[in-house]
Write a structure and sequence with these properties.
The chain is 71% helix and 0% strand.
Amino acid sequence: APRAERALLLGRVYLAMERPFLACAALAGAAVDESLSPEAKRAALYLEGTARERAGDSGRAAAIFAAAAALDGTDDSRERATRNYAAFLAGSCGEPAYTIEKTESI
């Protein structure tokens, strides 16, 4: 856990310094450390998603925010996963992408 906790702290510092690529490197794999608490895993995923988002890696950001949403179920994580996935599709296709989100009314 100390190594993963150091990675989280270093990732936060790099994000505060506006160095998203260094934050991505520091946070990579921190969330899979089995010794972290569920709250720390969610925080690690959220931080890595934010770093990927700021670095312009919308595909990985979408996947990481989706994993964070699976852990905590917050609307913010789901919304950021959807937004990054749409950005990834738009960048891949060269056209605006539309996504359909399942709600309880469907």
